[in-house]
Amino acid sequence: MIRFDILTIFPEVVEPYLSTSILKRAQEKRLVKFSIHNLRRWTADSHRTVDDKPYGGGPGMIMKVEPIFKAVSALKNSKVRRSNAKSNPKSKTRVILLSASGKPLTQRVAEQCARRYQRIVLICGRYEGVDHRVAQYVADEELSIGPYVLTGGEIPAMAVVDAVTRLVPGVIRKESLEEESFSLGWRPEPDPASAGTVQGEYPQYTRPEVFYPNLKKKGTAWRVPKILLSGDHRRIVAWRAQHMRGAKKH
């Protein structure tokens, strides 16, 4: 069984799709398990705030790192029931942030997820973006379903769930999978206009300026880049242009 944990502020967007057709039957057969979590559960204020204004200025709101970090930490620490866990090599948890700047979701990526992981946590962004510290420190990787911008990460999350679930043994007849175009070696041609690359966005951050993932041990601090706190608009624009494709994890 593969378990999918979906973090979103709009559970009602995801629920109908996961309770339909092949995905519904896969869960009824206990081949997969879907758990949808409202990210606002991990907020601390009365308004259940999940977003704030971006450092350095700019339009829109940025999703905060704190509730996402708390949610992922809670899920990782929760006990997941495994059948015959000792003999099951798929015991790792993979945390994925759905992002326009992520690597493309391909059939190969879906196959790796189905083969390697027993639990996949999907983080759905909203608003203008997600605090870049989520990509740097919380998520294991970022995935994109195409070179375009969507209102939120719920549709990409459902695409990941769908693509991976179909590959779980018993969900779809093996003969059907073997006859599909990707399994036969077909791959789409790269777009010559983009030279096979996808232009991402620059990293964005919001409050707090410094986030301590471990309050008992404040030696580790995730900080907002100082340039965004400088108030120097020209330098901020230059920094954003330099980091347009997104920074790699340190």
UniProtKB/TrEMBL annotation:
The record, for Gene3D superfamilies, names:
3.40.1280.10, tRNA(m1g37)methyltransferase, domain 2
Which Enzyme Commission numbers does its entry carry?
A: 2.1.1.228
Q: Which residues cross the membrane?
A: none
Q: Which GO terms describe its cellular component?
A: cytosol
Matching entries from SUPFAM superfamilies are given as: alpha/beta knot (SSF75217)
- Give the record's keywords alphabetically: Cytoplasm, Methyltransferase, S-adenosyl-L-methionine, Transferase, tRNA processing
Describe the location of the tRNA methyltransferase TRMD/TRM10-type domain by residue ranges: 2-244
Reaction catalysed by this enzyme: guanosine(37) in tRNA + S-adenosyl-L-methionine = N(1)-methylguanosine(37) in tRNA + S-adenosyl-L-homocysteine + H(+)
One Gene Ontology term of the molecular function aspect: tRNA (guanine(37)-N1)-methyltransferase activity
InterPro entries assigned: Alpha/beta_knot_MTases, tRNA_m1G_MeTrfase_C_sf, tRNA_m1G_MeTrfase_TrmD, tRNA_m1G_MTases_N, tRNA_MeTrfase_TRMD/TRM10
Q: Where in the cell is it found?
A: Cytoplasm
Cell membrane found in the keyword field = no
One of its GO biological process terms is:
tRNA N1-guanine methylation
**Where along this sequence does the record place binding of S-adenosyl-L-methionine?**
125
Recorded superkingdom = Bacteria
Q: Outline the subunit composition.
A: Homodimer.
Describe the function of this protein. Answer: Specifically methylates guanosine-37 in various tRNAs.
Query: What family is this?
Result: Belongs to the RNA methyltransferase TrmD family.
The identity of this protein, by name, is: tRNA (guanine-N(1)-)-methyltransferase
Q: Which organism is it from?
A: Terrybacteria sp. (strain RIFCSPHIGHO2_01_FULL_58_15)
